[in-house]
Design brief:
By secondary structure, the chain is an alpha+beta fold. It is built from 16 helices and ten strands.
């Protein structure tokens, strides 16, 4: 009995300790006098949002309350370089604090060089309190009222550090609603001098509900501008035009058969147009021929189908769950959804590869499962190497790398195998409307504007035109200091992009078939995917004319991540364009009465 009582007492102590840990920033509820942890995250140049370093790497000191440690709670935090360290400030809920010194440090030569460089390059740091972010500059240059010195590396005596942090809390009941950080007390940065840091805290009651506390970080005037609505309307009109065009083409090709069944007699002109010598009918014996590199084609189409499904799911989750409020929540959601939807890739790629008559289905499954993760890991490795060279917090920890590899090996590959088996058994039977001739038909010469590369290059313009306004808002939220929250707009633009891509690809493929170019599978995929090339070109324009980024690290990070973004977009659009074109081609050739 005494042993059981001791065990129960120990268990109660552990539960109480766990409750005391979780009862603050995890539940966002505090008792009067309970500690409010001030987390110092990262510091970096204002114009280079992704070039971040540990806050304490500049030589800043911490307060006496530094026993609390933070571990990456999600894989998204680790991949985004979140480095929360306790500031050591003694902040307690509903307890005002007069200006109080919390630490001091002697400015040695290394600290002086680091802080002076940071001030000259407009470094600012990020703080988290109760999951609320706030930012402030490290210091500034020049006397009071003087303009800031130009960006250079020349030593200057007019470098000042903000030594005082004032925290103004707003609370509603037992929850923190808002925290404002004000940096004050400019002190000169001098080598060998002691630099003291102070802080003060005030609490003020607020009537703002807890659910609306992130509204202050949003910018409705920017995201809900009239041009945003106009771009949606313009894209919607484009969809109506393209759908009408595709419908007209489809009805035109099938009208002869419809007339045969309805016994109409007023189609003489149309019958002349759809005579036996019509271009697309001449390739009925080759149009369903297996494309070149069938294994690779099956992999890219299957991966694109999965990415389209992932994009739709993540957008819906963001609309419902406000993913922008959590650190790394969006990236974590993307990784999770991509992993659990791996059967989609296996189903489409496995079924398609079997319809093409492929025999090495295990090899095809492994290619489909690792195509996108392999490309992402390769590019990320190069970016991570640069981040490690710069000692940036963006360098991915080894443990996170192992976690990603385990997700690929033990989640994505097995689920892709399951999808492949289902695809081979449920969708692996080829039922082509026309038989394939044993000897390929020679492709006749055609005008230069009907060449495949011309059609592919022109095919991506309209899909890009339907989304480039939204690309500006997305780029601004990711590469600048805006929080993207209008996911309803994104859902509309996503659906418009899918419809426009499918319609444009169908029209372009129709032109190629009329030119007796029967190798339409890769052409349709490339036509739909070409819009991602224009997005990447727009990202180059955005980098040089819409941002003030500089330095090798930020440039590498920007163009590397934009390459991954456009790669995913190209795979997604290519799959959607091919899927729509495949349905169209099968539909029109069903009307061709060939034995």
């Amino acid at each position: 009995m005494p042993g059981q009582r001791a065990s129960c007492a120990l268990l109660l102590l552990l539960v109480a300790a766990a409750a005391s840990v979780v009862a603050d920033e995890h539940s966002h509820k505090y008792e009067p006098g309970e500690q409010v942890v001030v987390w110092m995250n990262t510091v970096g140049p204002y114009h280079n949002l992704q070039e971040t370093y540990s806050y304490f790497s500049l030589g800043f000191c911490a307060g006496p309350h530094t026993k609390i440690d933070h571990h990456h709670e999600t894989i998204g935090e680790a991949l985004q370089g979140v480095e929360l360290r306790s500031s050591g400030l003694g902040v307690q809920f509903l307890r005002d604090v007069e200006p109080t010194e919390y630490c001091s440090t002697v400015v040695d030569s290394k600290t002086y060089v680091s802080l002076a460089y940071a001030v000259r390059h407009h470094y600012w740091y990020q703080i988290y309190i109760d999951d609320l972010p706030m930012w402030s500059f490290v210091g500034d240059m020049g006397e009071e009222g003087e303009e800031a010195l130009p960006l250079n590396d020349e030593p200057s005596d007019r470098v000042y550090i903000y030594s005082h942090k004032r925290f103004d809390f707003a609370y509603n009941g037992n929850q923190i609603i808002e925290v404002n950080l004000t940096s004050m007390n400019r002190v000169p940065l001098l080598p060998g001098e002691r630099l003291s840091f102070t802080y003060s805290v005030t609490f003020q009651e607020s009537s703002v509900p807890f659910a609306d506390r992130f509204d202050k970080y949003l910018d409705p005037k920017f995201f809900q501008h009239q041009i945003h609505w106009f771009s949606i309307f313009n894209s919607f009109m484009m969809v109506i035009f393209l759908v009408g065009l595709v419908s007209m083409i489809l009805l035109r090709t099938l009208r002869k058969d419809y007339a045969r069944y309805s016994r109409e007699d007023d189609l003489e002109d149309m019958e002349r147009d759809l005579g036996d010598e019509y271009g697309w009918k001449q390739v009925h014996g080759d149009v369903f021929r297996v494309p070149s590199y069938p294994m690779l084609f099956s992999a890219v189409v299957g991966t694109g189908h999965q990415l389209a499904f992932v994009a739709l799911c993540v957008i819906l989750f963001a609309i419902v769950g406000d993913l922008y409020e959590g650190r790394g929540s969006m990236l974590t959601t993307v990784i999770f959804v991509y992993a659990v939807t791996a059967p989609v890739t296996g189903y489409f790629s496995g079924g398609m590869y079997m319809r093409f008559g492929g025999k090495e289905w295990i090899k095809a499954m492994l290619l489909s499962a690792n195509l996108l993760p392999g490309l992402v890991c390769a590019v990320t490795f190069l970016i991570n190497f640069v981040a490690m060279y710069y000692s940036s917090s963006r360098a991915i920890p080894f443990g996170t790398m192992v976690s990603v590899v385990c997700i690929c090996a033990f989640v994505i590959v097995p689920l892709t195998l399951v999808g492949t088996v289902l695809g081979r058994n449920m969708g692996g039977h080829a039922e082509n409307p026309c038989r394939v001739n044993p000897v390929p038909r020679p492709v006749p010469e055609k005008a230069w504007y009907m060449e495949t590369w011309v059609i592919v290059a022109l095919g991506g313009i309209l899909p890009f035109g339907s989304i480039f306004i939204e690309m500006y808002f997305i780029f601004t939220s990711f590469w600048a200091y805006k929080i993207y929250y209008v996911y309803g707009f994104m859902l509309l633009v996503f659906l418009i992009l899918m419809i426009v891509t499918a319609c444009v690809t169908i029209v372009c493929t129709y032109f190629l078939l009329n030119a007796e170019e029967y190798r339409w599978q890769w052409a349709s995929w490339l036509t739909a995917a070409s819009s991602s090339f224009y997005v990447y070109m727009y990202s180059v324009y955005y980098f040089f004319f819409k941002t003030r980024m500089y330095g090798f690290f930020q440039t590498t990070f920007y163009f590397g991540n934009m390459f991954l973004f456009c790669l995913g977009m190209g795979l997604m659009c290519g799959a959607v364009g091919y899927a729509g074109t495949n349905v169209f081609v099968r539909k029109i050739y069903q009307a061709v009465k060939i034995d």
